[in-house]
Structures are given as structure tokens and as C-alpha cells.
Amino acid sequence: MKALRALRTLSSKPRKTPLNPIFFHRFYAAQPQEDDSSHTPSLSDSENGSDSVFDSTHYDIPTISSDSKPKIPQKLTWNTKYRSKADELIDQKKKPDDLIFKNSSLAKKLLEAAVCLPSDDENEEDEEEVVKEEDQKALSVGIIGAPNAGKSALTNYMVGTKVAAVSRKTNTTTHEVLGVMTKGDTQICFFDTPGLTLSNRGCPYKDFKVRVESAWSSVNLYDVLIVIFDVHRHLTRPDARVIGLIKRMGALAHPIQKRVLCMNKVDLVEKKKDLLTVAEQFKDLPGYERHFMISGLKGSGVKDLTQYLMDQAVKRSWEEDPFILTEEVMKNISLEVVRERLLDHVHQEIPYGIEHRLMDWKELRDGSLRIEQHLITPKLSQRKILVGKKGCKIGRIGMEANEELRSIFKRDVHLILQVEL
């Protein structure tokens, strides 16, 4: 795990933000950046005026009240004093009818009184129950596969919240993303990697080649490696490159790493017997200890996969605090959410060429967040497409991203997106 942690770019002082025991890191610069002095706005930068800027404060968005936080179910306990008295009344025999009625009524009230609700302090203790370091178990899991195999969707489902951008477009994941799931005494770190290919040839951008090389270099660093592929596409449009990747990873058993093969998107396959045919095709590869049929989007088969991973965990201290979301992680989340919306609404090669910067991050006095991001396009024509007519496209991207960030952070968010050339 030390080799994995060397990838981190977390440098800011952690700010404690309570959340579910789930969070993630995205490994690329999320620190607020100074405006590049070499970037001098041309006249075309101001052609559309305010149309190129989305500011959520210009919209009527209801604020999130403190009461909107999810409530934790309270555990009921018995007050033994009332309970013992009730038992005495219930066990009495041969009493007159009216006395039996009175005693039964009294017993009922005593039983109701015996049910005690725990105090708020007790709830907090239950919520943040600390597992002793000597009892902790951990596991690192790498998720690899061809582009658009469903790696990010599976990661999101495993950790229970969105930690990586998911899109129909290939090469959605540009950097390694970490999602953490903590259950009981076990913590599993899922590493969602960029799409793998057997060759770098044909990559349209230089940074794609860097991503592929980076993904290959980290393959052997995990305790368990999940090799995932789109079984629906394999049945309808088989790709020799994907088959080659599966066979290469399963050709030899790794001496210290366990590997499993996951047939993803089974929910899209109409004839389930076809899945058995695919399983038969890869069953003799010695490198895979187990085969799973799953749907990373719908959750089919994921429970069995999760249990298998829990069973593989080893005695080791946890790498992450399950109850704290650091400021650096929150910055990465904001970048990831906006990126997903870009991929949803801007097509062709345009979103891949956009330089995405976090320029400002402030926690205001009322507890809300002010987030400013700049989207820099290499061409004026691309800038116009991203902005849209009278700012409609960047406005839609901003509104959807702002709403999702509010949902994730459970607080008001003021998102500002500025499109530059």
C-alpha cells in the first residue's frame, strides 16, 4: 500500500467533515490555481459577455436546512426495573377478572415505559464506533478493463456513492480514482483505473498514452485485481483486443495477487444461457481464481463479489479514516462531478481537449461552499459550443453539477463555472 499512497497529491490540512463511511480521492491537481499569466484573454473571450459564466447565485435555489440530514435509526433498550415489574404482573395466576384486566393494562404500560430511547451521545458513539487497530483488516482492489467496460459504475456501486464520472463515452476515467468501503472491521480500497489497451497505437491524444502506461504500471500493486469486460458487447460485437486483454491477464497465476474475472452488464443480455457460453470460453485461464457475472449499474451479483473481497482482507491497519471527508477529497469530488456533466452534454472530442481547473474554494460563514472552476478550450469554435446559445449549455451543466454537489456534501453549494479560451 505504500506504493499506492505515493500516488496521492493530498497536501492540504485535512478539514473534518462528517459523512457516510465512504469517500474517494481523484489523483490529479485539485488545488486552487492562480490564473496563468501566459493566458491573455483575447477580444473573443468577452464576445459573449456573461454568457460564458455560470453562477449558481443567480438562480433561485432553495437552501438546505440542517434538518435535512439523514437520521440514524435509534436503537431501543430495556429499562430492567420496569421490565421486571411487568414480568411479575404477567406471571400472577388466579386473579379475579377485573384484577387481571387492571394488571394486564398496567403491565402493558410498564412494558412501554421499559423501552428507552438512547441519548444523542449514545447515538454518536454507535455511529462512530472505533475499531481497534489490532482488529482492523484491509484490502486493496484494482479494477481494470478495456475502455467503457463499466469500471467506474462498479466502483460507485461498491462504495455506495458516486466517486467517479460515468458516461457512455469511452475514456471517461482520466486518472486513478480511489473509493473506500468500510464494513465492520474491514476496509476495502477500490482503485478505478483508466481504460487499458494492449497497445498505445491509435490513441488520439498524447495524454491517452500516458494514462494507458500509468494503468499498466500499477496492475501488480493491488492485493486483488478485478478484470472486467462488457459481456453484452462481447456477445453482440466481439472485440479481439478485449479478448486478448482478458487472456493476457489470465494466462499465468500471479504469485502474490489474486485475480478475478467479472462479466459486466449482464442486465443487458436477454438470453441468460449466453452468459454460460462466455464463461465456458474463459474458464480454463489459470490466472483467474473466480468468475463473477455482475451488473455494476444495477447491482446484480455485486453482493457475492463484495463478500468474496471481504473474505480476502488481511490483518492490516486501515489506510483511510472512514468518518472524515477531507477538504482535498471534496475538491476532487467537485471536479469529478463537473467533468461527468461535461461528458453528458458536450460531444465528439471537445470534452477531452478541455483544460479543467479548480480556481477557488471557500467555506463561507453560513457553512455553504463557494466553488469556482475554469474550463479552458483550445479553440474559439469549441468555446462557443460549450457555452451554447445565450449560455444555455454551460448553464445546464452548472445547474446539474451544483444540484449533485449539494446532494453529496449535504450543504448549500455556490458553483461558478467560467469558460475561457
TrEMBL record:
Name under which the protein is recorded: GTP-binding protein ERG
Naturally occurring in which organism (per UniProt): Prunus armeniaca
Region Disordered, residue ranges: 30-72
Cross-referenced SUPFAM superfamilies: P-loop containing nucleoside triphosphate hydrolases, Prokaryotic type KH domain (KH-domain type II)
Single annotated GO MF: ribosomal small subunit binding
Keyword Nuclease included in the entry's annotation: no
Region (G3), start-end ranges: 192-195
Domain Era-type G: 137-315
